[in-house]
Amino acid sequence: MDTPNNQIKDAETEATILMNYAMALANASLSDNENVKLAALDNNLKLWVEIETSLKSAKNLLPQDIKTSLMKLSKYVERLTLSKGVKMTKADFDSLVNINMQISEGLLEAVKNSLAKEEAFSLLKCAVDLSSARESNNLDQLVTALDNNLKLWVYIKTLASSKDTVLPNDTKNNLVKLADYVSSKTLEMGKNIENINDKTLDSMIMTNLQISEGLISNQKIA
Is the pTM above the cut of 0.90? Predict the structure, then answer.
């Protein structure tokens, strides 16, 4: 029988896997390389097949309503992936990313996960929100996404600049520089919000994805 500590560890592991695959999908959605897209989609599909298999197991003690909801999500992921494959639109990729993030968020909340993972999740969410706003061509949504991303990076800069932080000096300096970069680019885009530079926005999205991935990788090593 699993102990509470084992259950928490398992939940954290599952949340991390879901976040890693969400990041891979988000990266793939910005790539022109079909092999990158195929690998991300294939890995995510295998994950959800495993989740579905687990849900069908007699040993799975999740409440029936949760199992039913997860089964529906699994079927949706399988149907979308198999029907469209690498021909998916950006919106299709975003829907898969959001599914992983929603389930991951639930797991993180359930186990009150570490600050590093919470920050990684926040960075990933902002990246997806920025991408979704551009895809939907919704200026109000884009302004909100840029504002939320800026607030997150101001918070990260505050943490990195704190005397109490235990991060290495080079890491702190890099985070401060990235925060300043995000701030300057956000202000720059805000002056001409109707004509956003796609390369600049892509750069901001990729910055979030890379730092989020780095935070998760460091947690694995720790």
Answer: no
